[in-house]
Amino acid sequence: MKAMILSSSPRRTGNSAILARAVAEGVRDSGHECDFVVADDVLTDFLKDCRVCRRADGSCSIEDGFAAAFFENYLPSQGFIVASPIYWYGMSAQLKAFFDRMFCYIAASYPQSSSVVARMLSKRIGLVLSSEETFPTVSAGIVQQIQEFSRYTRSTFVGTVHGYGNSRGEVARDPRDPVASAYRFGRDFFSAHATDYQIDTPRSGRVWGPAA
Ligand SMILES: Cc1cc2nc3c(=O)[nH]c(=O)nc-3n(C[C@H](O)[C@H](O)[C@H](O)COP(=O)(O)O)c2cc1C
Prior knowledge:
Elements: E1 2-7, H1 15-29, E2 33-38, H2 39-42, H3 50-53, H4 66-74, E3 79-85, H5 93-106, H6 113-120, E4 124-131, H7 140-152, E5 156-164, H8 178-187
Parallel strand pairs: 1-2, 1-3, 3-4, 4-5
Helix pairs in contact: 1-8
Bound molecules: flavin mononucleotide.
Flavin mononucleotide binds at residues 9, 11, 14-17, 85-89, 130-133, 138, 165-166, 168.
């Protein structure tokens, strides 16, 4: 399988990028493919009014790398892992812009939108965060947003890795060792038990099977 990791901090060697790279290493070590994309390399603009900037052939006229990242990395991947610093108790503007720009290709005014929607369904989704503050709900807003995106796209939110640090690279000194957790998260990303039941979901009633 293939995962796309989107690293969205402007600090390429910063805390969330360190965690994201550890996740990528884990994904690859478990035998899966991993495309590592830095949001700043592909995004130069926010979503605009599609009525104003959509070309006659339906394509988006914003000339940056978003379309390539969306069609060549995101859509063909079975896993999507987003990494962000916590900014103002939310995600980075780069990451938000990546989600927003998807709209251009799922809007009815894009001729192949139904094929895009079909390829957005049923992925495994992961979240990688770094922050200065450690209180438990510092990440609550982002976690909720990613859960809603997962629900909306009928995807499975596998989980979150969160490291604490402020200065560049400081996350490596977090005594809980989130870098090692990030590696394990990547290694187990496609195999980890991950559930979000509906009332009629067939299930055994046990999480881990019968005791030995
Ligand atoms: C604009 C901005 C807003 C921030 N807001 C928060 C915040 O709300 N809560 C927090 O714990 N840390 C906040 N921080 C600190 C970063 O989350 C922290 O330094 C993080 O590790 C940076 O990750 P990076 O190295 O991947 O960029 C903020 C930093 C910046 C630059």
